[in-house]
Amino acid sequence: MTNPFDMLLGGFAHVLGGGAVWHALWAVLIGIVIGALPGLTATMGVALLTTLTFGMGANVAMLVLVCVYVGAIYGGSRSAILLNIPGTPASAASTLDGFPLARQGLAGRAMGISTAGSWLGTLFGTLILALFAPSFGEFALQFGSYEMFWVAMFGIIIAGSLSGGDPLKGYIAGFIGLFVATIGQETNHAYARFAFGNGDLAGGLGLLPVLVGVFGVAEVLSAMRGPAVKAVSSKIDSVIPRIRDITMYWRTILRSGALGTFIGAMPGLGEDIAAWTSYAAAKRASAEREKFGKGSVEGLMAAETGESACVPGAIIPVLTLAVPGSAPAAVLMAAMMIHGLNPGPMLAITSPEFIYQIVAMLVIADMVKLFYGLVLVKPLLWILLIPRARLMPVVFVLCTVGAFAITSRLFDIWVMLGAGVVGFILRELRFPMAPLVLGIVLGDLLDKNLLRGLVLSGGDLSPFFTRPISMGLCVLTLLAAAWSIPGVTALFRRRAVA
Amino acid sequence: MSTPDVVTPLDGEKAPASPRADLVTAAVLFALGIAIMAQAWSMPRFVEQSGTGLTAPGIVPGFYGAMIALLAGVLGLRAVRRGGWAVHAPRRAANGDGRQLLTAAVLGVVYAGVLVGRVPFWLASALFVFAFTTVFEWDQGPERRVRRVVEAALVGLGTGLAVTLVFEKLFLLRLP
């Protein structure tokens, strides 16, 4: 069975067996609720739900996590529209036009636009994934240690440059993440690095406890520090998407879908960048620019389509290179490894059908998301009103369970607490979190491939720069680094204007 | 009327940290980078086993340490150029936000670091949720305080029991 269409059908048949619809229903719902609640992000949702999937088969576990991811990114728009507070960072762009629409008494229409844009975006991205991931995966088979080193380095640099805020702090966060990944026994000589004689440290810092700390505990602390969310009092009109909103802005949908998927496929950028870029591109191309920021249907459609198209996009490099396209995708990748699936170039050889199973999971999640988008409005309003003083301790309890469950070590709870405090401090100092996570996830890949490459070349550095693909990746990495130098960016912008 | 430009994260720092904070951060990170390099240098090289020493465990973390120190140096220089050395930021008095943050952090550490592992998990979680909710809702005034405390106790008990049931019985996971 090598025909892609047969494999796609096989993927659907495989995924739909074993109560998939039931799992998709509850997992998307949890995802939407997590995404809608300010302070809880998609990354945290996927990390916490990973704990729940330990006892499940790999297939069901992946379906659940993909559904949570898809649901959470969509759910963020609910609070963006109704409260003017993005439920997840990805929904920040949706507040610009979603909330003004709600204030005009069009909250239902705004949610309909959000549902349509998000549904079409994920569908578009999934189509791109199905079309290109298998062939890109085969191309990635040519990648050796030298190339994988540059892929990991490119991920850190581009995440540092573009993940928002200060590129310099992004790079530092990335290298801190890479350093964290070196703690514990290394593979060549089983030497325990930075363990200081401590047996627990010699075992390394678990990926999940660190991620739960950085995204869970740090977010609980941030939420308790900030002002309380004000109650919403909005009458909701019809949430059924209008066909005219879709046909009128089909160009925006296609453009945002393509941009969102492309940005998703770039290591470490993620949904927030996808949404902002799609929004900015839509505004630039729009005939009704003056409406942007005041309740533009096109603006909201662009942001929603872009962020949701980014989800399948972010999974493309996970499957083909073992490099995550976003922070939630990094946790998803970690979960794949926990469940014995080995994402990366070898996937095209060992289990090519898995790519199509992921496609099926994304389509199922997208359909369930559409269903909830149409029916789940009033209950979600009620959930949005849960006071943070009651919600956050429950989240903290779930974080503790999540950190402990994978290896049953109390040490991991301390790791979670430490990572949470460090993550909170770094966040307060405006260090972006995406490069940090990418560094932790890619640390092992970079470490192994750098050393393996040096051993293979007998200490000669030239193959890192002279092999064709390696050279291309090196140039891309340098360009990404140069982009963050203010003078270079200004020069580029001046030329673009001229 | 011209429309405002779209401000995106791509346009740079929206709410930068103060130069003084950046300078202190740079100093801490520089020290961290140097400490990592020193530790990496002191690691065994395993030259006899590998023949070349290229698999020495300290190479990669040493590189990371050097990069952290280098970038921290750049951050520090930038902070100085922005006035981090000269400007003495006024010390902020402890405000409500800081107190809330400290309270949340202390409660979290007491729960995860002290109670968990020593007290049955359902009880530890119930106590934590109850204490957390009660403390943070205390300032809402004496009106209906008793009711809020009772509700907090119920939420705590419900959380402790539900988490234990769902994770231990339904998903067969070991709890601390």
Structure description:
The complex is a heterodimer of chains A (498) and B (176). In chain A, 75% of the residues lie in helices and 1% in strands. Chain A has helices at residues 4-16, 20-36, 42-52, 58-83, 92-140, 145-162, 167-182, 199-202, 207-225, 243-248, 250-265, 271-285, 297-321, 327-338, 347-350, 353-375, 378-384, 388-405, 410-428, 433-456, 463-466, 468-483, 486-497, and strands spanning 184-185, 192-193. A two-stranded antiparallel ribbon of chain A has the order 1-2. In chain A, a hairpin with a 6-residue loop joins strand 1 and strand 2. Chain A starts with a helix and ends with a helix. The mean pLDDT of chain A is 86. Chain B has two domains: 1-93; 96-176, no CATH class. Chain B starts with 18 loop residues before the first helix and ends in a 6-residue tail after the last helix. Mean pLDDT of chain B is 84; it is low at 1-14. Chains A and B meet through helix 7, helix 9, helix 12, helix 18 and helix 19 of A and helix 1, helix 3, helix 4, helix 5 and helix 6 of B.
The helix fraction of chain A, in percent, is: over 70%
Number of strands of chain A: 2
Structural shape of chain A: globular
Distance between the termini of chain A: 54 Å
Output the strand order for the largest sheet of chain A.
1-2
Strand content of chain B: under 5%
Helical/strand content category of chain A: mainly alpha
Described by its quaternary structure, the protein is: heterodimer
**What is the distance, rounded to the nearest whole angstrom, between the alpha carbons of the first and last residues of chain B?**
61 Å
Characterize the overall form of chain B.
Answer: flat
